[in-house]
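Handout, page 2. Input:
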Amino acid sequence: MVEGLKDKLADVQLRVANLVAALGPSFDGAWSWEDCDLAVVTVPSMVASLDADACLRVLLADVGHFTMARKQPGAPSLIVVDEFSAIQGGRRAAIDLLERSRGAGTGVVLAGQSAVSLGDEDERARLLAAASAQIIFRTTMPAELAALAGSERVAEAAWQAEEGDLTGRQTITMRARGRVDQDQVRGARTGEAHIISAGRVARARIIRTAVPEDATTRAVELVAGERPALDAQSAHELPPESAPPPKELPA
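Output:
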């Protein structure tokens, strides 16, 4: 490979040096995916798009290596990629993860604002074909995603009328109707979704849970690496041990 790139090594060195200079210590650390239960990585793609794109390629390549080589066999894991439209150079790695990671016990969730955010026509076709389920929230362009649910045959009745009065004659016609009503998708409220899987459809509504303020405070302290201190009100004392029952004296 070095022999084949000998005329371009200077360019590669320059790009890598610029990336390392831009990242600084961002990739330094003593942990990896297999060392934690939950990892959240935020990449500011709108601040430095080229550097963010390079970071995503590195991260997704390492996630793929972890999934196929370093993860314990059979151990479940889940990868969630939010704002999938922001991934450009790493899009191929994300598609490979979705298509091949299921056999290794790893689920992949790709989230975007619309079907267009999944990529071009070929990329969308690969992603939608590989996904075992699609969750559709409110969107103004539901046709492509709603079609994944297929159609069902329903009976439609029609009554004949003359001069405003029913004649008593009627017809029943079998027609194909989409399982997902596109107008319902367009007018869905916040949190309402259609879940499509294997031609079946279920409507769901996500209810936001109210998180107690003390739980939020403790979570922030844990993320900051501080041990939450217990004050007098939050500290709980162990209840005193109950006294043993009196022994009965022999008569």
